[in-house]
Amino acid sequence: QVQLVESGGGLVQPGESLRLSCVASGFMFKNYDMRWYRQAPGKERELVASITRTGKTTVYTNSVKGRFVISRDDTKKTVNLQMNSLKVEDTAVYYCHARRDYFSSYWGQGTQVTVSS
After folding, report:
1. In what order do the strands lie in the sheet with 78-83?
2. Are the C-beta atoms of 94 and 38 separated by less than 8 Å?
3. Ramachandran assignment for 56, one of left (phi > 0), alpha (psi -120 to 50 degrees), beta (any other)
4. Closest by alpha carbon to 36, among 96, 104, 109?
5. What is the DSSP string of 35-87?
6. For 83-114, what is each residue's pLDDT tens digit?
7. Reduced to 3 states, what is the DSSP secondary structure of residue 49?
8. What is the C-alpha radius of gyration for the chain, rounded to an integer number of angstroms?
9. Number of helices and strands (H, E) in the chain?
10. How many CA atoms lie within 13 A of 55 on its CB side?
11. Using alpha carbons only, what angle is made at residue 51 by residues 45 and 55, rounded to the nearest 5 degrees?
12. 60, 49 Cβ separation under 8 angstroms
C-alpha cells in the first residue's frame, strides 16, 4: 500500500520557521524525484521545491528561494522542507509528491501551514 504521510504543519507568526516532513512507504523511494507543492485558498496548486532521486539537484520557486530548503533521507524514506522566515503569503496546504515517471506518481494528503500575526 503506497503512502505519503506529511507532518509538521501548524500555525506560526511571520518570521518564524517550520519543518515539514513526508514519510514514504509502499514503493521504492530512492527511484523517485520528490517535490513539495502548496495550494492556497482560491489559488492553483504550485510547485514549491523539488529534489531529484539522486539528491544532487534541487529547484525552488522564486518566492521561496533563500528561505526554504528541501532535503531527502533515503534510509528513512523521508523528504523534508525546512521553511524559514515564513511570510503570510506562505499560508497554504502543503503536499508531498513522488514521481518516478509519467506512469508512476503519488500524492500525500497535505498538511496545513498558516502564517499569521
Report:
1. 3-7, 18-25, 78-83, 68-73
2. yes
3. alpha
4. 96
5. EEEEE-TTS--EEEEEE-TTS--EEE-GGGTTTEEEEEETTTTEEEEEE-S--
6. 999 999 999 999 999 999 988 999 999 999 99
7. strand
8. 13
9. 0, 11
10. 11
11. 170
12. yes
21 DSSP β-pair partners:
7, 80
Signed CA dihedral, 70, 19, 91, 109: sign only: positive
Residue tagged 507543492 (cell numbers) = 37
Q: Within a 10 A sphere around the Cβ of 8, how many other Cβ atoms? A: 16
pLDDT for the residue numbered 7: 96
Neighbours of 96 (CB within 10 A): 27
Cβ–Cβ < 8 Å for 29, 95: no
pLDDT digits (tens, 9 = 90+) for 37-93: 999 999 999 999 999 999 999 999 999 999 999 999 999 999 999 999 999 999 999
Say if CB 71 and CB 79 are below 8 A apart. Answer: yes
- What local confidence, expressed as pLDDT, does residue 96 receive? 98
